[in-house]
Input
Amino acid sequence: MAGATTLSDLASVLDVRTAEAAIVAELKAGSEDAFYWLIAHYNQPVYSLVYRILDDPSDAADTTQEVFIKVFRGIKNFNADSSLKTWIYRIAVHEASNHRRWWFRHKAQETSIEPASGSGDEQPCLAMKDTLVDEGKSPLQNVYDEELRARVECELQALIEPYRTTVILRDIEELSYEQIAEVLNVSLGTVKSRLVRGRDALRKRMERHMQAFGMDHPGVGRNRKRRKDGPVAGQKVEVMP
Output
């Protein structure tokens, strides 16, 4: 039975690789349909990743556009050493990081440090929740879960780099350690070290909010899918001890 499962998984992987190879071939040939598919398939994931790095909807939209321009221009040089998704994410992280560095050099001094209204801690959380909410979700989704997710997203923004991006790639984007190493161009050991430190920092930041959500411990959640090695599954964000 285990052998059958392994063969089935292998067949699925081979099917994915075959389909991806076909898409890449179409992209390299200049197929407009393939480019439309690429944008439809990756635009939202890339935007969400870039937004979490930049924390600004307008900058994220502009940077996402730049990412796809780089993808279109560079697809002929894609050699399939990594997956198409990993390659695109590598470009996205690079572009977002470049924009963030540029902003701090040229724009940060022009921006008021005073919050526009209300608490400076609450306002970004509300913006994050409005931007990342999935409109396709059921209207009956638990409000508690949405509020906690928004709070985790907000505290995630407070993590320093490179820990924030590592946690995002692993626990939200669900990339493997190997894929993260390729995206960030670092060793597996570095990925694991950053992930441990990033998760620990996020856990400590979330501890002050647990009582408000009726939790005795940061690792306790409601209706959440635990991963064996990570605090987040898909769009559900959970802080582990």
Observations:
- The chain has two domains: 13-106, 118-241.
